[in-house]
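Quick start: read one record
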Amino acid sequence: MRQTSQYIASLQEAEHSLSPSQLKQGVAQVLYQNVDAIRALLYESAPTLESWAKAQVEAQQLTNPKGAGRKPANPVLMFLILLVRSFLGLSNTKLARVLVSDLSVQQFVSEQLDWLAAQQRMERLEQLHFPKLSTIRKYIELFAHDGILAECKAKATKFFVTYGAAFLEPPQKDEEHYKPEQVGLIDASFITVPVTHLPKNLYAAVKAGHVEEVESLWPRSVSCQKNLDARWAKKRNERFFGFKLHTLTDFTTKMILADIFTPANEHDVTKLIALSQLAPEPMFKLYADSGYCGDSYEETLSQQGFKAVFIKRAYGKHSLTIGEVAENNKRSHMRVRVEHTYAALKHNLSFKPTSKSTICIRGECDLAVMAYNAKRYQAIKDGRTVVPKTYKGETNKAVLVSGQLEVAKAAKAGYFPLTPPSPI
C-alpha cells in the first residue's frame, strides 16, 4: 500500500514537470490524431447516455431508497474510457493500468469532458475518478445489455456517413459526367473465443437449444467461464470456435454501414437480405462473396431495387470457364476493400474479444465498429485517403496516399485526392 501511494505521488510530480506537448506524445498520440471523430462520437451519444443514467437513478431509488453504497460512475466518462480502450486496442486489464499510470491519457480524457461540458451536453465533473478493472467489465456488460452501445453506434454511423460525404467532393472539371454509384460490400469474418469444452451429451443439449438447463448444472463460478452461444465452423480445412461478424461496407469510404452478429456456424446466405435492409441509404450494387450466393435471394434483392453481384464458385464437376474466372478477378478488385476493413479491425485496432459473455463480446464488437468508422472519418476529413474514380459504372481501385508527391501521382493516375471543403 505504501509503495502504491509513493508511485502515485511520483506520477503527480512527473505531471508538473511535463509540458502539454510532451503529454500529447505519449500513448494518447493516437487519440489526439482522431480527436475530432471522438468528439463527434461523444456529442452524438451524450443524450442517450444521460437518459439511460436517469433511468438507472430512478430504478435505484426503488431498490435502494436510502442511497447506501458507492455512487455509480458517470456514464459519459465510462463511454469515453471504453472508446479509449477501442482506439488503443487495449484489453480491460491493460486499460485499467493505463488509466492510472499514463498521464497523457488522463489529460486527454479530462480535456474531452471539459469540451463536452462547454457544449452543454453534460455537467462539468469536479473531480475525475478513473474506474477499476471490475467497473470497466461491469459497464461493458451494462451498456451492451441495455442496447446503449448499439444505439450510439447507429447514431455515430449516421453522422459519419452524412457529414463524411461532405468531404467526398472530388475536384474535377467535367462534373456533369460524374455519377458516383452507391456500392456496398458484404462479407463476414470469424471472431474467435476461447474454446468451451463440454461432454458430448451436454454439447448435444446446447446445440438443441437447452442452454438454461445446461447452465443450471454448474455453479455460477463455473458457468460464467463458459460461452454456450459460440459454435464451431470450418473454412478451408481450418476450424474456428466463436462467432461471425457480417458487415455491409461502403465501397467509397470503407465505413461499416451495418453489421450482424451471429454464431460461427450460421450460413452467410441467411443474413444477406437482413444486411441489405439495414443499409442507411439505398444501394445501387451489392458485391458479396460466393457464400452469399442464392437464386431466391438474388431475385428478392432485385425486387427491392438492388443489383447483387456475387463471386462465382465451381461446384461438383462444373469448373469455371475462362470468362467466369476473368469476371471473378474484376469483381475481386471491387470486393477487396472489405478485406481492408477487417484487416484494420484486427491489426490496427487489435480487435480480439477477451470477454467470456456473449453480451460483452457483442458490446466489444460495437465499440470496435465505432472506433473504426471514427478513424475512417478522421482520415477522410484530414485528406489522408482518396476517392476512387467512377465513370459509367466502372470503378477503379482506391489507394492510400501520404504526402504531396503521392497525391500528385494518384491524381495523374486517374484518382482524385480528398480535399476537405473550406470552412464557412
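The longest strand covers residues 238-250.
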